[in-house]
Amino acid sequence: VRNNYTRNIAVYDDTLHKAELYNAKLVEDFQTAIDQKQFQLYYQPKFDVTGDTPRLCGAEALVRWNHPELGMISPGVFIPCFENNGLIQAMDHYVWHEAGRQIRAWKDALGFTVPVSVNMSRIDMYDPNIVYTVLEILETNRLEAADLHLEITESAYAEDEEQIIETVRRLRAMGFLIEMDDFGTGYSSLNMLSSLPFDVLKLDMRFAQNSASEGKDKYMLGVVTEIARHLGALVVTEGVETQQQLEVMKEAGCDIVQGYVFSPPVPAEKFETFLTDAKTH
Ligand code: C2E
Ligand code: CA
Ligand code: CA
Ligand code: CA
To answer: In angstroms, what is the span from residue 62 Cα to ligand 1's centroid?
Structure first.
């Protein structure tokens, strides 16, 4: 026992140490990043695929960190870090405000825009002031609730169901459209689907990527879209990369598609070309 004990504390895990140092740097640089506007929003178009030709119907705002020393950092890296270090709310509020500002800018420049969906972390949902935070974004930018959709990850609902459901109810009562994100990745059960408030079911990309052939996955896809329809919810599939996957999704009754088959997330200036195209068609 003694030997094991000694050996354990003597072990020095270099990889772990490096990851800790890296995360510590991200935390340390956070405020500067906010102050210097190093966080950038990319926008990925969403297309309504229920008609003969796909029609632009929305966008998802996805944050990137353009770090002066570390380069472009993906949210998969810094979001979990910020969630663990109490910074996620400040970052998300920044992102939502920035999205609101951009929607206003597009409305002013083009005379119209499509709804932009922003992501909400589980931690955001416990904030009793969240309703006022999003209201303020509308007021500041003279927007309506219909301009901003809210994506809430499915796993958020599982943690403290009652409080989350209450917050979601309040947000919906204000007119916000709620998209249940990452559906099918975690805790979802049929029971949850019937008791949770949401307007859009956003299928995790594994549905697009595993359902191309016949089999269980394709069958599940059909069942899920059928249930969504009965609940009056729209179905969005993300991570659709190929024409073949797109066809499968349309056939299964998916309403909206987001994925590389149409476009990756792009900077605001580039997204504007989707808007101008949509306007002239
Ligand atoms: P998510 O909300 O599920 O966003 C979809 C992710 O899939 C994005 O990754 C997007 O770039 C990627 N994606 C889109 N189309 C395709 C495709 O056809 N194929 C593949 N393989 N991937 C595709 P991204 O931008 O790296 O974001 C990762 C995650 O970080 C997001 O997953 C979301 O959970 C989180 N995130 C991003 N922005 C924010 C934010 O502002 N706030 C919060 N709280 N989380 C955010
Ligand atoms: Ca999302
Ligand atoms: Ca998702
Ligand atoms: Ca995700």
So the answer is: 6
pLDDT in tens, 167-197: 999 999 999 999 999 888 766 667 777 778 8
Distance (Å) from CA 62 to ligand 4 centroid: 11
* Contact between 209 and 227 (Cβ < 8 Å): no
What are the Cα distances from residue 116, in Å, to 27, 103, 198, 201? 28, 8, 17, 16
Ligand 1 mutation target, pool 119, 125, 242, most atoms within 8 A of CB? 119
Start-to-end CA distance of the chain, whole Å, equals 74
Angle at 236 between CA 230 and CA 242, to 5 degrees: 130
215 vs 221: CA distance, rounded Å:
10
Assess: ipTM above 0.90.
yes
Atom number, ligand 1, closest to the C-alpha of residue 79: 45
Using DSSP bridges, classify how beta strands 39-48 and 266-267 pair: parallel, antiparallel or unpaired: antiparallel
| pLDDT tens-digit series, residues 72-128 | 999 999 999 999 999 999 999 999 999 999 999 999 999 999 999 999 998 999 998
For residue 62 and ligand 1, the question of a CB distance below 6 A is answered with yes
